[in-house]
Amino acid sequence: MFCVRNWLREDKDMKKIMVIAPSKSLSVISNDTKKNAINKLNSIGYEVIFSKNVYKNQLYYCCGSVDDRVEDLNEAFSSNVDVILSAIGGYNSNQLLPYIDYSLIKNNPKIICGFSDVTAILVAIYAKTGIITYYGPHFSSFGMIYGIDYTVNYFLKAINGESIIIESSQYYRDDPWYMNQSEVNKIKNYGLKIINKGVAEGVILGGNLNTLNLLQGTEYMPHLEKIILFIEDSGGEDGNFLLEFDRNLESLLQSEIGSSIKGIVIGICQNVSNMNVKKWKFLVKNKKMLNKIPILVDANFGHTTPIFTFPIGGYARIEAFNVPKIIIGRSENEL
Length: 335
What we know:
This protein has helices at 31-43, 66-78, 102-107, 119-129, 149-159, 209-213, 241-253, 277-285, and strands at 15-20, 46-50, 83-86, 111-114, 133-135, 164-165, 171-173, 186-188, 193-196, 198-208, 227-232, 261-267, 295-299, 310-312, 315-320, 325-329.
C-alpha cells in the first residue's frame, strides 16, 4: 500500500484536504500519480489526508460498502479540514444519497469537489442543504504533470470565491496520461462554439449528464426557477455518443426542471465521440424547448483535460454572440 505519511509536508499554516472515495477505490491509482498529486497540492498550500476507508476494495466496482463510504463522507464534514476531494469517479455514488447526514453537512459546510459520477453527491448536497458544491478535479487529477496548470488555476479561483470569466485553454488532452507521463498528446483547442445565440443568467446546475439524470424524480434534484445547465458526458464508442446524449438530454428536458433551463454549456467531448458543430446543431434543432435559449459547446470541463471548476448552486451568465463568454460567480451580485 502507498505510504501516505512519507509524502505529507508538516506545516501548521497549510490548509487541509481530505480525500474520500465515494465510488472507485483510491487503490486503482498508481503510487506515482498519488505522489504527484500530493506534491502538487502541497505546493499550492494544502496538506493531504485520507479517509479511513479510501483504499478499501469490494467485488466489481465499489470502494468498500455503502456504510464504509458514507462513514468517510460524514467524517470528512465533521473533521477539521478545509476541502474534500473525491479520489476518482466510478458508477455508484448515488447509492450513498439516502444515508448521508445532510444536517451534519449543513452545520459544518465545507468545500467538496469532484466530477463525473460524483455529480450525484454534489447535486444532492446542494439540493438538501443549499450549500454550494464544486464540479472540478478529483484528487487523482492533480497527479498530472504536464498540462495541469489551467486546472489548478481555475480550481483555486473557484474555491476562493472569485468571479471568473472563463478563457479556453490553448490545448486539451484526451489520452491516458496516467499511463505514461513522458508523452504529451496535445490537441488544438479552438474554444467555445455557439450553437444557439442569446444571453442568459441563472443558477448553475449540472455535471455528468448520465449521472444527473439518475436524480430525476427524487428529493435530491434541486427545484430552481432559472437554470444555466452545465453538462458533459464521456465515451462514445461505436458511434453512439450522439444517440445517448440526445435521449439523455431529452429526458432531462421532460423532467420537472426542463422549463427552468435558460441556457446550456456543454463540455468538450472525448475524441471517440466524433462530435462536431453540425451534430450539435442537429441535436438542438430537434428539441423545441432549446430553440430559443443560448447554447455553447466545447467548454473546458468533463472527461478531457484541462478543466475549469464551477460552483453548483453558484451563478452564471452566458453570452452567445460574436465572442462567446461564460462568467461565473457564487452569487447573482457577483456576475
